[in-house]
Write a structure and sequence with these properties.
CATH architecture of chain B: 3-Layer(aba) Sandwich
Number of strands of chain B: 13
Number of helices of chain B: 6
CATH superfamily of chain B: HUPs
Structural class of chain A: alpha/beta
Order of helices and strands of chain B: EEEHEHEHEHEEEEHEEEH
Number of domains of chain A: 2
Largest sheet of chain B: 9 strands, mixed
Largest interface: A-B, 93 and 80 residues
Strand order of the largest sheet of chain A: 9-8-7-10-6-1-4-5-11
Order of helices and strands of chain A: EEEHEEHHEHEEEEEEEHEHEHEEH
Distance between the termini of chain B: 66 Å
Shape of chain A: elongated
Radius of gyration of chain A: 22 Å
Shape of chain B: globular
Radius of gyration of chain B: 21 Å
CATH class of chain B: Alpha Beta
Helix content of chain A: 25-40%
Strand content of chain B: 25-35%
CATH superfamily of the largest domain in chain A: HUPs
Oligomer: heterodimer
Largest sheet of chain A: 9 strands, mixed
Number of helices of chain A: 8
Structural class of chain B: alpha/beta
Chain lengths: 303, 258
């Protein structure tokens, strides 16, 4: 079994998540080759074949060109699986490669066994097992689902080139907004989720954070709704945190949120739904109305 | 100018899910359905562009599924879409993303849409494939995970959301497809006059067999809850007692309460 792993490079740097692809291939017990649109000055610690294209000429986000590069490597390597991270790079490029090959694509894989792949669905409450029906399969793996595997060594480089631009032009990056709170350094975080019901209830959650001597966090829907500022957002598109205590108030536990907080030392979740996926990572799940339980807990702590 | 927005109807994600009789997707009994959240942002963005372009611009909404999806279609019409296509398919949930994309492409291929909007993914399936695959099948430009959208004279300037709060600015020439991320805009609530007006708008029904020419590339073999990892304690009961129990546990298990 052979895999072609598509690494990631952004803003002039090789991304660490590239090594999760090697962790996935290791679990499959598959041979590997790596492809990177990057730079010779940022080579992965890896001793196999590296198909390398130059990001300076091919661009960091140029999906039409990157698709051509991947298809070129697929032709040379003839892999069974073409594997991407399920990231803003991977979910954008993978379907283009799959469509060109008319290959099955299985998205956001969390486990693999026997030619079948496990994926989450229904907001991470349920799982599906999916079997490809094509000779080649395109896969994207969930961030953090597979271990980082950094084998060391230097790759054997095979250079790839492609030309043409298509009708899309990358203009540039905008850095993340300046943070008024650095959640990564907080020892205690109390986060508000959609389950708090309305913006007027945010002070109730903030009061618990204050009573515990911690910071206020929030899930994405709460930030999108404008209840809490983006700088407080925990998750893949916000901050990744690992405090000593994480209190999730009315947060159901979307994959993107869990990825940002599951490494916390101790997780207390309050949710009225006993089956909410946050229960999967919580040390303690309190099944209760968050707007009844949280004020009661705050009051008791203040005594 | 012609615009298309593709929407899916999904169950309320707060629901409890049980496998259907084939064990490969959820049983729809007792589930309440509504428009996929990502698609609400897609519809809003499409309607905003439709309003900006004014007369001579036409916005079509398309949904694939059983009769229940007409509810989501009606909401889109009340939000400001001009007309609708309902691809009638009582077995839509058993189709893979390749087939769903092929149905949309077969409908769109000779219509000359300048911009196609889709959600970034569905909340129930979450494959994030259909939008990009449609663009590939039609051979048009595409970008994904859009949190900013400006159209000017055949060029779209989009902001893509990357990881860690970073954004990327991208320019695309139309015809193009964009997949919309949460937070792109603030989806409007349909007003009563617009709901009434929407009742007069046309919904064209097309049997799925007229548009589907592709076999699935992958099959779901099982739909099941995650294996319980155990370890976590679940506490239920009176709020006062729960508070005492939680404080005792925090004192015992964490160093943050003394």
């Amino acid at each position: 079994m052979k895999t072609l792993l598509i690494g990631e490079y952004r803003d002039g740097k090789l991304l660490e998540s590239t090594y999760e692809l090697l962790g996935f291939a290791d679990q499959l017990g598959a041979e590997t080759a790596l492809l990177l649109v990057g730079s010779e000055s940022q080579l992965p610690e890896y001793s196999g074949t590296l198909y390398l294209a130059d990001a300076a000429t091919c661009g960091e986000y140029n999906p039409n060109l990157h698709k051509k590069l991947v298809l070129d490597a697929v032709q040379q390597e003839n892999p069974d699986y073409i594997v991407f991270l399920h990231s803003s790079y991977g979910w954008d490029l993978a379907p283009r490669v799959a469509a060109s090959l008319k290959a099955a694509q299985i998205s956001e894989v969390i486990a693999a066994s026997d030619g079948s792949f496990e994926v989450g669905c229904c907001n991470a409450k349920m799982r599906r097992s999916v079997k490809p029906a094509t000779g080649k399969t395109v896969i994207t793996i969930q961030a953090g689902a597979f271990p980082v595997l950094q084998p060391g060594g230097s790759p054997t480089i095979k250079k790839l080139t492609a030309t043409g631009s298509g009708s899309l032009e990358f203009v540039g990056y905008e850095p993340a907004e300046k943070k008024d709170v650095d959640l990564a350094k907080a020892e205690i975080i109390v986060s508000a989720g959609r389950g708090i019901g309305k913006k007027d209830n945010v002070p109730v959650i903030r009061a618990l954070a204050t009573a515990l001597g911690g910071e206020l966090g929030a899930s994405r829907p709460v930030v999108d709704a404008g209840w809490v500022e983006h700088s407080h957002q925990v998750g893949t598109t916000g901050q990744t945190v690992s405090p000593k205590l994480y209190v999730a108030c009315g947060i159901s536990g979307a994959i993107q949120h869990l990825a940002g907080m599951k490494k916390s030392d101790f997780i207390l979740a309050i949710n009225k739904d006993k089956d909410a996926p946050i229960g999967e990572v919580a040390d303690v799940l309190v099944v209760a109305d968050v707007m009844q339980f949280v004020p009661a807990l705050t009051a008791k702590l203040a005594k | 100018m012609k615009l298309l927005v593709c929407i899916k109807q999904v169950p309320d994600l707060e629901s409890r899910f049980k496998p259907n009789s084939e064990g490969v997707w959820y049983n729809e009994t007792d589930l309440a359905f509504r428009m996929n959240e990502y698609d609400e942002y897609a519809v809003e963005q499409a309607v905003q562009l439709r309003e900006k372009m004014g007369d001579g611009c036409e916005l079509t909404v398309l949904s694939i599924g059983p009769d229940r999806v007409v509810e989501a279609i009606k909401k889109s019409l009340a939000m400001g879409c001009d007309n609708a296509v309902h691809v009638q398919d009582s077995a839509a949930s058993s189709k893979d993303p390749w087939q769903i994309a092929s149905i949309i492409s077969a409908y769109a291929k000779d219509k000359g849409f300048d911009v196609i909007f889709t959600g970034m993914q569905s909340q129930d399936r979450g494959s994030a494939q259909v939008g990009v695959t449609v663009a590939e099948q039609l051979g048009i430009a595409c970008t994904t995970t859009v949190v900013g959208f400006v159209y000017d004279n055949g060029t779209i300037t989009a902001r893509r959301e990357l990881e860690g709060g970073i954004k990327a600015a991208v320019k695309l020439n139309t015809p193009a497809l964009v997949t919309c991320q949460l937070g792109l805009n603030i989806p409007r609530y349909p007003t009563l006059p617009n709901i009434m007006k929407a009742k007069k708008k046309e919904i064209v029904a097309i049997p799925v067999a007229d548009l589907l020419n592709e076999a699935p590339l992958a099959a779901t073999t099982s739909f099941h809850p995650p294996a319980k990892k155990g370890g976590g304690i679940v506490l239920e009961g009176d709020v006062g007692e729960l508070v005492d129990k939680v404080i005792a546990i925090l004192k015992d298990k964490t160093a943050v309460l003394r």
